[in-house]
Amino acid sequence: MKFDSIVIGSSTLDFFVNSLESKVIKENSFINKKGIAFPLGQKIDGNIFETKTGGSCLNIATTFSNFGYKTHVISIAGKDVNKKIIADYIKSLKNNKKTTLKIDDKKITGFSCIILSNNAERTIIKNPKGCSQNLKINQKDIKNSQAKLIFSSSLYGKKESWKTLLSYKELHPKTLWCSNPNKQDLIFLKNNLNFLKYIDCFFLNLEEASILSGLDYHKEKEIFQFIDSHIPGICIISKGARGLVASDGKYIYNCGIYHHIKLVDTTGAGDALASGFALMYQKTKDIEYSLKFALANSGNCIEKIGGNSNLLTPTIFNNRTWKKYFNKLKIKKEKIC
After folding, report:
1. Domains annotated on the chain, with CATH
2. What pTM was estimated for this model as a whole?
3. For residue 65, what are the CA distances in angstroms to 4, 73, 291?
4. Is residue 29 classed exposed, middle or buried when 0-12, 13-18 and 19+ CB atoms within 10 A define those classes?
5. What secondary structure letter does DSSP report for 109?
6. What pLDDT shows up at residue 219?
């Protein structure tokens, strides 16, 4: 069966909560020296209580579906009531053409509580008993699916899953393989660097790039030298509010963000960036255009709560407002010496 894309990864329910009485405080015992605080022992009013679907698989599949990509979704849910919510959301994606939703009989569907501060920062409390880490991909899942693009995310370092995708890429060399790894995947890849040469588009943030390379995340030049020596494809490193930096082995691309965006919630911003680039690069093979589109998808995402609530659609992207800002965003391109 032929598809435009195959999307593999986690599916979760995210519960968002916020109170105007919360404060961001300094706390030296925390990694980033900051935390969200509430009055101890008191009942306080909340102004946000929202439950959304999330997880890398659903977020990425939503971008592809919005732009007409016929998609095969592969994910996992627990044997609980939340399984139906996940299944119903996947079914609601108008261009989803096949669903492989594996059911874990022993663990619950992935669930997170996301505490939002009043200045759009957040703390995510995830349930360690969720089933996402038990997702395993085998040949049976994808052997009859031919796609222009395959996007793997959150494989949790499962060797079987990585070997399955490697075999698929060897059988379908024209398929664009995009990967947005989690921490367990990075540890696996650090010990199995040969897998990287098969990946066409690789997405990281600076902390993840530091884990993979073993270098301090401030050493961006050295990190890219490491990446370019192991990844012949395109690597994109998100720098959050500072935009992104990308390399195709020949050039380094630096790009800032869209400054008209009104930040509400950064959940899913990385998935939006990665899926936006993958979608547009598969269509156009234009790196600069695809980077600007990726930032637009990510920017639109963070203006509302939830990782897939406000992703771009053709109608939104083609309106005058977005086109104006899109055309003004500049990319600095430098040849790698």
Report:
1. 2-28+45-335 (3.40.1190.20)
2. 0.94
3. 10, 11, 19
4. exposed
5. P
6. 85
